[in-house]
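[agent] plan:
  1. take the single chain provided in the ticket
  2. run structure prediction with default settings
  3. attach structure tokens to the ticket
  4. add a short note for the reviewer (M.T.)
[agent] executing step 1
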Amino acid sequence: MHLRFAKRSDLQSIATVASRAFANQPIYHYFAPRHVEHKDEFRAVLLREIKERFATPGQVVMVAEEDDGNGKMKIAGYAIWIRIGGPRKWHKDTLTNNDGTELERSLLRAEAFYVEKRGSDEIFISPNAQRFHEMAEEIMKGANICDNHWHLNTIAVSPLFQNQGIGAMLIDWGLESAKEEGVPVTLESTTITSKLYVKKGFRDIGVIRVTKDLQMQVMIFNM
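[agent] step 2 finished; step 3 output follows
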């Protein structure tokens, strides 16, 4: 098992991992209540977001690869890390080995827009997602989180490769990057998965009450 930066050719496989990993996640029943009945549309929405983040400077898509037993490497998990502020090296183009063109970026975004319009209206409630992110931002502002930190936006491990330490590896990449730069790390977590983050040294700074039955914890790792 090893980690590397994602390539454009990985995006379809990453979307498949995401759609399978998030199928039963409570937060996605809030964001996309009908995603179980609309699996293809759900995957399309996730692919659109992954492409958009891959094409955005300052957002780093990491993948974990594992040998599938036949000599081929298979993507087992991924994480999207966002570098807020900080060194310029993280804000260069993420396309074509940091030398991407504006045309390629425009094509990716146009494709993402098409996918969003085609699929998201069926299953995705954008105001719910927007409200969630606004609540998380308010908590971070209240905790005086500086504009120079890493944020773990998304992490997912394929159901075929869970309980093998892959999630921990993807988290450790961001923590090591943050330690090298002397900056904090933030994320949002369910109550269940927060136990892993606590073991890594994260602490709670606030709670988002999504519904009466679901709450998410906003967490921070300080140097």
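[agent] step 4 note for reviewer: Confidence is low (pLDDT under 50) at residues 96-100.
[agent] ticket updated
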